[in-house]
Amino acid sequence: MKKTILAIVAVFAMAFTANAQDDDKATGQTSEGKWLIEANTGNAVLGTTGIYFTSFDGESVFNIGLDGGYFVIDDLAIKAGLGYGTDSASDTSIFSYRLGAKYYVKSMIPVTLDLTGSSIEDANENPLWLGVGAGYAWFVGKNVSIEPGLRYNISLNEDFTDEGVLQLNIGFALHF
Q1: Is 135 exposed, middle or buried (0-12, 13-18, 19+ CB in 10 A)?
Q2: pTM as predicted
Q3: Residues whose CB is less than 8 angstroms from the CB of residue 176 and which lie 6 or more positions away in sequence, other chains included
Q4: Is 47 in contact with 116 (CB distance < 8 Å)?
Q5: What's the start-to-end Cα distance of the chain, in Å?
Q6: So what's the pLDDT on residue 47?
Q7: pLDDT tens by residue, 100-129
Q8: pLDDT digits over 57-67, tens only?
Q9: For residue 119, what are the domain limits?
Q10: What is the mean pLDDT of the chain?
Q11: Number of domains in the chain
Q12: Among 32, 39, 78, 166, which is most buried by a count of CB atoms within 10 Å?
């Protein structure tokens, strides 16, 4: 628990460090008509469009996916994502999808709201989550940002699980 709290504090402290960005540079990257392609770290519990790999006791789970978005107005992108993964323990395939929006407050604090779901091969129930997240966009180049953040996922399928999931993610985005 201490590590989780420390990680949360570190993410938000990063948002207020001396790494403040030039407003013109950030605004240009999140302005109307621009595109966004991103890869995020993921969570095996959710079924995700993120990237992750876990291995424990000879069993492994991996997923790979991407999200893409289009800025319909300055700082607001409508997004969609797809992911595919496998679980060697149950020998199943997992197809994941995401639809949502991402708004950059002051062109550097991304806030997200999206629906994430999965179709798990031979499963009786599949997960469906409403996700809310916030973070910090550190623009390291003209077209690249690193976006650490926190995300809370609320289960919309009580037959799958009735518990929410808190995530610490790191996203890597291309803006063009």
Answers
A1: buried
A2: 0.78
A3: 34, 35, 37, 143
A4: yes
A5: 39
A6: 59
A7: 999 999 999 999 999 999 888 888 888 899
A8: 888 888 899 99
A9: 2-175
A10: 83
A11: 1
A12: 39
Place of tokens 């392609």: 37
| 157-to-54, 87, 116, 129, 154 alpha-carbon distances in Å | 25, 21, 11, 8, 9
Instruction: Report the CATH number at residue 51.
Output: 2.40.160.20
C-alpha–C-alpha distance, residues 108 and 118, integer Å: 30
CA 176 to mean position of chain CA atoms: 19
> Which residue, chain included where needed, has tokens 């990257």?
29
Predicted confidence (pLDDT) per residue in 70-97, tens digit: 999 999 999 999 999 988 888 889 899 9
Query: Which structure tokens are listed for 132?
Result: 């809310």
| Phi, psi at 99, each rounded to 5° | -135, 135
Q: Is the dihedral of CA 136, 161, 121, 119 positive or negative?
A: negative
> CA angle at residue 123 from 100 to 62, to 5 degrees?
65
